[in-house]
Amino acid sequence: MMPFGVGRRICPGYDFAMFHLVYFVANLIWLFEWKHVEGDDVDLTERLDFTFTMKNPLRARISPRLN
Questions:
Q1: Nearest to 34 by CA among 55, 57, 58, 54
Q2: Quick check: pTM over 0.90?
Q3: For 1-10, how does the pLDDT look when each residue is reduced to its tens digit (9 = 90+)?
């Protein structure tokens, strides 16, 4: 379950991929305004799928920042 490998056989593009992932998430946070959906409370109850996931996923209202 290690998509980029480990040790000597590690993917040569790992650092590049991680850089772009961080850049992508940073742009999502910077370019959009994130608010919680009214009436939804955070419930940290878990359920077992392949891994543990949230029983009721978090929901957000996303709107572009108008500056």
A1: 58
A2: no
A3: 466 677 777 8
Can you read off the two tokens belonging to residue 9?
A: 């056989």
What does pLDDT average to over the chain?
85
DSSP class per residue in the chain: --TT--GGG--TTHHHHHHHHHHHHHHHHHHEEEEEPTTPPP---EEESSSEEESS---EEEEE---
Contact 22, 51 (CB under 8 A): no
d(CA 42, CA 9): 41
Quote the radius of gyration of the chain (alpha carbons, Å).
Answer: 17
Specify whether the CB–CB gap between 37 and 60 falls below 8 A. Answer: yes
